[in-house]
Each structure stands twice: as C-alpha cells, then as structure tokens.
Amino acid sequence: MPEVEAGSLLEHAIFYRELLAEQKEILRHKWSESEKAGQDIGFENALVNWVVHHRARWRKERRQRVREMAADEI
Q: ∠ CA(64), CA(66), CA(68), 5° rounding?
C-alpha cells in the first residue's frame, strides 16, 4: 500500500469538508425550490440550478468567512 503524506491527507480532508458543505447547500436549495414548485424537483435539477445560479457567490462568501475566522485567530 503506498504511503500517504500528511499534507495530502489534510488536502483531501479539506476537499471532503467543502464537498459536504456544498451538498448541504444543494439539499437546502432542493427543499426550497421543491416547496415553491409544490413537488419534489429532484436532486439533479436542484444541483444544476444551484451550480448555475448560486455556487459562485456561495464559494466567494464561504472563502471570505474562512479568511475572517483565520484573521480572528491571529
């Protein structure tokens, strides 16, 4: 089995946390849009809609919050 560097593990852990955070937002979006539509819009439709209309802003705001939290720790 190949050895895994600590930095690689940290990078994968960060990637995984970001993936989970995005999934949570997509599920919130799915619920909200399904309520508006009066029916379940499905995960794929919610995913595409969220990526097209909300992902860039969400990522920008998330990066800003992370920077602010890091600055508070200093």
A: 70
C-alpha to C-alpha distances, 35 to 6, 17, 38, 50, 52, nearest whole angstrom: 44, 27, 5, 15, 19
Domain extent listing, the chain: 6-73
Tell me the C-alpha distance between 26 and 45, whole Å. Answer: 10
Token readout for 25 is 């937002």
Whether the CB-CB separation of 50 and 25 falls below 8 Å is answered with yes
Any idea what DSSP says for residue 45?
H
Q: What is the pTM of this model?
A: 0.78
The residues, ordered by sequence, that sit 6+ positions from 39 with a Cβ below 8 Å of its Cβ are none
Contact predicate 23/46, CB 8 Å: no
Residue 36: pLDDT over 70: yes
